[in-house]
Protein backbone atom coordinates (compact mmCIF):
# COMPACT_ATOMS: atom_id res chain seq x y z
CA UNK A 1 0.00 0.00 0.00
CA UNK A 2 1.18 3.51 -0.83
CA UNK A 3 1.86 5.94 1.95
CA UNK A 4 -0.37 9.00 2.35
CA UNK A 5 2.46 11.46 1.56
CA UNK A 6 3.69 9.90 -1.63
CA UNK A 7 3.84 12.06 -4.80
CA UNK A 8 4.60 10.93 -8.32
CA UNK A 9 8.06 11.69 -9.65
CA UNK A 10 6.69 13.34 -12.84
CA UNK A 11 4.00 16.01 -12.72
CA UNK A 12 2.40 17.92 -15.58
CA UNK A 13 1.85 21.60 -14.81
CA UNK A 14 -0.04 23.81 -17.25
CA UNK A 15 1.84 27.07 -17.90
CA UNK A 16 0.07 29.30 -20.44
CA UNK A 17 -0.99 32.87 -20.98
CA UNK A 18 -3.66 34.41 -18.92
CA UNK A 19 -7.15 34.44 -20.22
CA UNK A 20 -8.25 37.74 -21.75
CA UNK A 21 -11.27 38.92 -19.85
CA UNK A 22 -11.58 42.44 -21.29
CA UNK A 23 -12.90 42.80 -24.83
CA UNK A 24 -14.02 45.86 -26.69
CA UNK A 25 -17.70 46.44 -26.38
CA UNK A 26 -19.73 49.01 -28.26
CA UNK A 27 -21.19 51.89 -26.29
CA UNK A 28 -24.85 51.61 -25.44
CA UNK A 29 -27.20 53.47 -27.75
CA UNK A 30 -28.66 55.62 -24.99
CA UNK A 31 -25.19 56.59 -23.79
CA UNK A 32 -24.23 57.56 -27.31
CA UNK A 33 -27.22 59.91 -27.46
CA UNK A 34 -26.33 61.35 -24.05
CA UNK A 35 -22.71 62.01 -25.15
CA UNK A 36 -23.89 63.69 -28.37
CA UNK A 37 -26.35 65.93 -26.47
CA UNK A 38 -23.80 66.97 -23.84
CA UNK A 39 -20.98 67.71 -26.35
CA UNK A 40 -19.50 71.19 -25.91
CA UNK A 41 -20.12 73.68 -28.72
CA UNK A 42 -18.14 76.90 -28.74
CA UNK A 43 -20.33 80.00 -28.96
CA UNK A 44 -20.31 81.85 -32.24
CA UNK A 45 -18.97 85.42 -32.24
CA UNK A 46 -21.56 88.17 -32.39
CA UNK A 47 -19.73 89.84 -35.31
CA UNK A 48 -18.14 87.77 -38.10
CA UNK A 49 -14.34 88.03 -38.24
CA UNK A 50 -14.45 89.44 -41.79
CA UNK A 51 -16.44 92.42 -40.51
CA UNK A 52 -13.93 93.37 -37.82
CA UNK A 53 -11.51 96.24 -38.43
CA UNK A 54 -7.90 95.12 -39.07
CA UNK A 55 -5.52 95.47 -36.19
CA UNK A 56 -2.89 98.16 -36.43
CA UNK A 57 0.60 96.74 -36.33
CA UNK A 58 2.79 98.53 -33.87
CA UNK A 59 6.32 99.04 -35.13
CA UNK A 60 9.03 98.44 -32.61
CA UNK A 61 11.27 101.47 -32.39
CA UNK A 62 14.99 100.89 -32.07
CA UNK A 63 16.64 102.25 -29.01
CA UNK A 64 19.39 104.85 -29.16
CA UNK A 65 22.23 102.36 -28.74
CA UNK A 66 21.17 100.33 -31.80
CA UNK A 67 20.91 103.50 -33.89
CA UNK A 68 24.37 104.54 -32.74
CA UNK A 69 25.87 101.17 -33.77
CA UNK A 70 24.21 101.33 -37.18
CA UNK A 71 25.50 104.85 -37.71
CA UNK A 72 29.02 103.65 -36.92
CA UNK A 73 28.68 100.83 -39.48
CA UNK A 74 27.55 103.34 -42.10
CA UNK A 75 30.60 105.50 -41.38
CA UNK A 76 32.88 102.46 -41.70
CA UNK A 77 31.56 101.64 -45.17
CA UNK A 78 31.61 105.30 -46.24
CA UNK A 79 35.06 106.38 -45.03
CA UNK A 80 37.20 103.32 -45.95
CA UNK A 81 38.42 102.08 -49.31
CA UNK A 82 38.95 98.48 -48.19
CA UNK A 83 36.39 96.53 -46.13
CA UNK A 84 37.23 92.83 -45.72
CA UNK A 85 34.69 90.40 -44.23
CA UNK A 86 36.24 87.55 -42.22
CA UNK A 87 34.85 84.61 -40.27
CA UNK A 88 35.95 84.79 -36.65
CA UNK A 89 36.57 81.57 -34.71
CA UNK A 90 37.36 81.34 -31.04
CA UNK A 91 40.96 82.23 -30.21
CA UNK A 92 42.90 83.33 -27.11
CA UNK A 93 42.77 87.00 -26.15
CA UNK A 94 46.57 87.34 -26.45
CA UNK A 95 46.43 86.24 -30.09
CA UNK A 96 43.66 88.76 -30.81
CA UNK A 97 45.73 91.60 -29.31
CA UNK A 98 48.79 90.51 -31.28
CA UNK A 99 46.83 90.31 -34.54
CA UNK A 100 45.35 93.78 -34.02
CA UNK A 101 48.82 95.13 -33.30
CA UNK A 102 50.28 93.74 -36.54
CA UNK A 103 47.32 95.02 -38.56
CA UNK A 104 47.47 98.46 -36.97
CA UNK A 105 51.06 98.79 -38.21
CA UNK A 106 49.61 98.88 -41.74
CA UNK A 107 46.71 101.20 -40.74
CA UNK A 108 44.19 98.34 -40.79
CA UNK A 109 41.56 98.37 -38.04
CA UNK A 110 39.58 95.40 -36.69
CA UNK A 111 35.84 95.92 -36.14
CA UNK A 112 33.71 93.41 -34.22
CA UNK A 113 30.12 93.73 -35.47
CA UNK A 114 26.81 91.93 -34.95
CA UNK A 115 24.77 90.55 -37.83
CA UNK A 116 21.60 92.15 -36.42
CA UNK A 117 23.28 95.53 -36.79
CA UNK A 118 25.04 95.08 -40.13
CA UNK A 119 22.33 93.35 -42.16
CA UNK A 120 19.70 96.16 -41.98
CA UNK A 121 22.39 98.70 -42.94
CA UNK A 122 23.59 96.69 -45.95
CA UNK A 123 20.04 95.98 -47.06
CA UNK A 124 19.46 99.69 -47.68
CA UNK A 125 22.85 100.45 -49.25
CA UNK A 126 24.74 99.62 -52.43
CA UNK A 127 26.64 96.86 -50.61
CA UNK A 128 23.64 94.53 -50.36
CA UNK A 129 25.51 91.84 -52.31
CA UNK A 130 27.67 91.32 -49.20
CA UNK A 131 24.69 90.03 -47.20
CA UNK A 132 25.38 86.29 -47.89
CA UNK A 133 28.72 86.64 -46.06
CA UNK A 134 27.12 87.67 -42.75
CA UNK A 135 25.76 84.31 -41.56
CA UNK A 136 28.00 83.58 -38.58
CA UNK A 137 30.26 85.47 -36.23
CA UNK A 138 32.13 87.95 -38.41
CA UNK A 139 34.69 90.71 -38.08
CA UNK A 140 35.58 93.55 -40.45
CA UNK A 141 39.11 94.56 -41.43
CA UNK A 142 38.90 98.14 -42.68
CA UNK A 143 41.50 100.55 -44.01
CA UNK A 144 41.51 103.92 -45.73
CA UNK A 145 44.00 102.48 -48.24
CA UNK A 146 43.82 99.35 -50.37
CA UNK A 147 46.40 97.28 -48.49
CA UNK A 148 45.32 93.80 -49.49
CA UNK A 149 48.86 92.40 -49.67
CA UNK A 150 49.69 93.40 -46.08
CA UNK A 151 46.35 92.08 -44.81
CA UNK A 152 46.85 88.68 -46.44
CA UNK A 153 50.38 88.46 -45.03
CA UNK A 154 49.08 88.97 -41.47
CA UNK A 155 46.07 86.62 -41.88
CA UNK A 156 48.37 83.89 -43.15
CA UNK A 157 49.68 83.46 -39.61
CA UNK A 158 46.20 83.49 -38.00
CA UNK A 159 44.31 80.32 -39.04
CA UNK A 160 41.31 81.19 -36.84
CA UNK A 161 40.44 84.13 -39.13
CA UNK A 162 39.12 83.10 -42.55
CA UNK A 163 38.76 85.71 -45.28
CA UNK A 164 35.34 85.43 -46.99
CA UNK A 165 35.37 88.44 -49.30
CA UNK A 166 36.08 92.14 -49.49
CA UNK A 167 34.93 95.39 -51.01
CA UNK A 168 37.84 97.43 -52.42
CA UNK A 169 37.17 100.76 -54.12
CA UNK A 170 33.42 100.00 -54.35
CA UNK A 171 34.14 96.66 -56.04
CA UNK A 172 33.07 93.42 -54.35
CA UNK A 173 35.73 90.70 -54.58
CA UNK A 174 35.86 87.08 -53.48
CA UNK A 175 38.81 85.59 -51.61
CA UNK A 176 40.46 84.65 -54.92
CA UNK A 177 39.77 88.13 -56.24
CA UNK A 178 41.48 89.69 -53.22
CA UNK A 179 44.53 87.47 -53.75
CA UNK A 180 44.68 88.47 -57.42
CA UNK A 181 44.34 92.13 -56.45
CA UNK A 182 47.25 91.79 -54.01
CA UNK A 183 49.50 90.58 -56.84
CA UNK A 184 48.98 93.74 -58.87
CA UNK A 185 51.75 96.40 -58.81
CA UNK A 186 51.31 99.71 -57.02
CA UNK A 187 49.23 102.39 -58.69
CA UNK A 188 52.20 104.61 -59.62
CA UNK A 189 54.05 101.74 -61.31
CA UNK A 190 50.92 100.66 -63.18
CA UNK A 191 50.35 104.23 -64.38
CA UNK A 192 53.98 104.45 -65.56
CA UNK A 193 53.66 101.20 -67.49
CA UNK A 194 50.42 102.38 -69.08
CA UNK A 195 51.90 105.72 -70.11
CA UNK A 196 54.96 103.97 -71.58
CA UNK A 197 52.81 101.54 -73.57
CA UNK A 198 50.63 104.38 -74.88
CA UNK A 199 53.64 106.52 -75.83
CA UNK A 200 55.41 103.67 -77.66
CA UNK A 201 52.89 103.34 -80.49
CA UNK A 202 52.79 107.08 -81.43
CA UNK A 203 56.60 107.25 -81.41
CA UNK A 204 56.84 104.26 -83.75
CA UNK A 205 54.16 105.75 -86.01
CA UNK A 206 55.97 109.10 -86.10
CA UNK A 207 59.31 107.47 -87.00
CA UNK A 208 57.67 105.46 -89.80
CA UNK A 209 56.04 108.58 -91.23
CA UNK A 210 59.32 110.54 -91.17
CA UNK A 211 61.39 107.72 -92.64
CA UNK A 212 60.21 108.28 -96.26
CA UNK A 213 60.73 112.04 -96.27
CA UNK A 214 64.20 111.72 -94.67
CA UNK A 215 65.24 109.15 -97.28
CA UNK A 216 63.96 111.36 -100.13
CA UNK A 217 65.86 114.38 -98.75
CA UNK A 218 69.09 112.36 -98.59
CA UNK A 219 68.70 111.23 -102.23
CA UNK A 220 68.07 114.77 -103.42
CA UNK A 221 71.12 116.06 -101.53
CA UNK A 222 73.29 113.38 -103.11
CA UNK A 223 71.93 114.19 -106.58
CA UNK A 224 72.70 117.88 -106.10
CA UNK A 225 76.30 117.09 -105.06
CA UNK A 226 76.78 114.96 -108.16
CA UNK A 227 75.53 117.77 -110.39
CA UNK A 228 77.84 120.27 -108.71
CA UNK A 229 80.77 117.86 -109.00
CA UNK A 230 80.11 117.36 -112.73
CA UNK A 231 80.24 121.12 -113.38
CA UNK A 232 83.51 121.62 -111.46
CA UNK A 233 85.15 118.34 -112.56
CA UNK A 234 85.97 117.18 -109.01
CA UNK A 235 84.82 113.81 -107.65
CA UNK A 236 81.64 113.95 -105.57
CA UNK A 237 81.94 113.44 -101.83
CA UNK A 238 80.23 110.33 -100.56
CA UNK A 239 77.00 111.09 -98.71
CA UNK A 240 76.72 109.99 -95.08
CA UNK A 241 74.87 106.74 -94.51
CA UNK A 242 71.22 107.18 -93.64
CA UNK A 243 69.53 104.86 -91.21
CA UNK A 244 66.11 103.48 -92.00
CA UNK A 245 64.83 104.20 -88.53
Automatic annotation (TrEMBL):
It comes from the Eukaryota. GO terms for cellular component: mitochondrial inner membrane; mitochondrial large ribosomal subunit. Its main location: mitochondrion. SUPFAM superfamilies: Ribosomal protein L10-like. It is found in: Mitochondrion. It holds the Pfam family Ribosomal_L10. Keywords: Mitochondrion, Ribonucleoprotein, Ribosomal protein, Transit peptide. Belongs to the universal ribosomal protein uL10 family. This is Large ribosomal subunit protein uL10m.
Amino acid sequence: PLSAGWLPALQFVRRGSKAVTRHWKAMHFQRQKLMAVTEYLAPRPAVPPRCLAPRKETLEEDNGYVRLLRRQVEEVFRDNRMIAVCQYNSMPGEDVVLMRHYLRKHNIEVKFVLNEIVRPVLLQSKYKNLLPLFVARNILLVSREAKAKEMLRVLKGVPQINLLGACIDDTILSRQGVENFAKLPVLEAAQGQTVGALALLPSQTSSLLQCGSAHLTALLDQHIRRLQAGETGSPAEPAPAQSSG
